[in-house]
Amino acid sequence: MKKALVLGASGSMGSAIVSELIERNIEVRVFSRNKEKLQSLFNDKEVVIIAGDVFNKKELRDAAAGVDVIFHAINIPYQEWEEKLADLMNNIVDAAKESKARLAIVDNIYAYGRSRGIPLTEEMRKNPHTKKGKLRLEAENMAKESGIPMFIAHFPDFYGPNAGSTLLNYTLESMVKNKKARFVGDQAAAREYIFTPDGAKAMVELALNDKAYGQNWNIPGTSTITGTEILQMAKQATGYSRHISKVSKGMIRFFGFFDKFMKEYLEMYYLTEEPVVLDGSKYEREIGPVPRTPYRIGIEITIAQLRG
């Protein structure tokens, strides 16, 4: 891989992938609708900035022309998934076909459905019980049936630099600003989070490995950790001493009457009560060690970035 296009480059995993590609001296094109954010993130980096709309086929095809790998790290608002998620994947697949590029897809865990309390392997049948899980599985199958060289990497919840739209960063940002902080879900539940630079390392490693294509890959976090443990680390790093309250399912349901995102998020709240844990043994067997930054270090780096 000499030249890559990163779609959704201004987002949490997309921006981390860009940094990892630069670190490996790979030529990078960054693509997003928000040119100002791309410039603020990458103006001092050796990248080609392309402002465009992934739903505009010509803009996407032009951006993809001549690249070796397209990284799909776009995340659209929940309330647009039903209408736009299939079109999004279709446009990206078409651009990959025309440019004869390989496709590397960042995905979440929604398509797996409930974990039944065991770490999930790639061989387990996906059985989504939510609308958004079914939509993600449909998009996954579209990519697989396209005939292009591609792989899909499944990740747990993100946290890290420039991951402001994630659940954990939402809490950490309030702590950094010494505002009233809230934690979504049960603080006693052991959940899994991935530090976005770790996820980016795994994505790029897969993209560079021929045998990764045509397969799904699970990329777990460092380990499971309770909200209580992770918030204690954050308090030590920030000096935050106030009580951190729980965002309950009832609160999400109430907010959903006024906010379309919250209304759509409600069905995914189960992940905070019945955590899904990924089995990364296939990656470790076929590719190498899964990148695992200790939570304390990842939290400290994230907090430093939030402080600016």
Characterize this entry briefly.
With 308 residues, the protein is α/β, with parallel strands linked by helices. It contains 13 helices and twelve strands. The model has no long low-confidence stretch (mean pLDDT 94).
Question: How would you describe this protein?
Answer:
This is SDR family NAD(P)-dependent oxidoreductase. There is one protein chain. The chain has helices spanning 12-23, 35-42, 57-64, 81-99, 131-144, 167-176, 196-207, 227-238, 249-255, 260-265, 270-273, 281-286, 295-307, and strands at residues 3-7, 27-32, 48-51, 69-72, 102-107, 150-154, 157-159, 182-184, 190-195, 216-218, 224-226, 245-247. The chain has 308 residues and is an alpha/beta fold. The protein has two domains: 3-160 and 194-222 and 275-292, NAD(P)-binding Rossmann-like Domain (Rossmann fold, 3-Layer(aba) Sandwich), CATH 3.40.50.720; 167-188 and 225-273, no CATH class. The strands form three sheets. It has a seven-stranded parallel β-sheet, sandwiched between helices. Strands 7-9-11 form a three-stranded mixed β-sheet. Strand 2 (27-32), helix 2 and strand 3 (48-51) form a beta-alpha-beta unit. The two termini are 33 Å apart.
